[in-house]
Amino acid sequence: PPAILGEARAVAAAGSLDGLRRDLGALLNRPQSRLGSGAFRWSESVAPLPEAGIWLPVDDPRVPRWLRPFGGEVLVALFDGVYASGVGIKRHDPFGQELAVGTEAPFSGQGLGRRLVAQAARRIVEQGAVATYLHDPRNTASAKVAEAAGFPDRGWQVLGLWP
Fold it and tell me: Which of 9, 148, 149, 156 makes a 20 to 30 Å CA pair with 51?
């Protein structure tokens, strides 16, 4: 907000991003919040991986709770009718849509996540939008999924204030 812009600039100018991470929550009257960062990726060339899932409405009983807030349809891989992995699409606006992926532990390491991410990204690109992918920089498994699906690390990061 404009009221704290001067203070925020002073904190940022006084040191590094670490100072802003530490102090921004207090400046915004949200002292429990912290500024965090994530790796920001997008794809200009989705990997030609085989499809691994089916699109289901979020109210389908096979869709796990974490995917329901995405609304519309979500992409899931099922084994014997049971959820194994899935992708939701955060539709920020008509131009940028962010993918979120999760795989159940017994099914990890089988390439489901990367195949689902590529499949969902192809749908986004076909609709004329840019597919984006965010992850914690320390999450090497997620970074590998992104790379394999065609989301290279360009060194970009996203900043957000989280409780």
Answer: 156
